[in-house]
Write a structure and sequence with these properties.
five-stranded antiparallel beta sheet; three-stranded antiparallel beta sheet; Archease, Possible Chaperone, Chain: A, domain 1; 2 helices
């Protein structure tokens, strides 16, 4: 579950999930919702695999979201959903989506970067929580 909130001139995204893998998948959906007005219009036509090395949950999330942002900026790919697995050496994910089509996808915000400012991932009694800010 993700929630988008205003944060000065940027947007913050708070995510809660039962597992770290689900947290990363929900964070990806949150990022897509910042990029695209209606993520439900994104078709799962393209499958892309990602691998992010590392063991620290905070930096795994940051690097994962940065990879998704780069895929949009460089190849104009919008992802509808992702299946994420967290392993001892890092994160593996398969994301499904399609190239941005201006005739069908209305862009909501221009995301300049995923920031490190106030970036937080922590384990709670109920699972995992994260907060990150996107520079718009």
């Amino acid at each position: 579950m993700y929630e988008i909130c205003d944060h000065t001139a940027d947007l913050g995204i708070r995510v809660r999930a039962g597992t770290l893998a689900d947290l990363c998948a929900d964070a990806a959906r949150g990022l897509t919702a910042v990029l695209c007005d209606d993520p439900a219009l994104i078709q799962p036509a393209v499958t892309e695999s990602f691998a992010v090395a590392g063991t620290d949950p905070t930096w795994l999330l940051f690097d994962w979201l940065s990879e998704l942002h780069a895929a949009f900026e460089v190849r104009r790919l919008l992802f509808r959903d992702a299946t994420v697995t967290v392993e001892p050496q890092g994160l593996r994910a398969v994301a499904r989506g399609e190239p941005y089509d201006p005739a069908r996808h209305v862009l909501a915000h221009e995301v300049k970067a995923i920031t490190q400012h106030e970036l937080e991932v922590r384990q709670t009694a109920d699972g995992w929580e994260a907060f990150f800010i996107v520079d718009i």
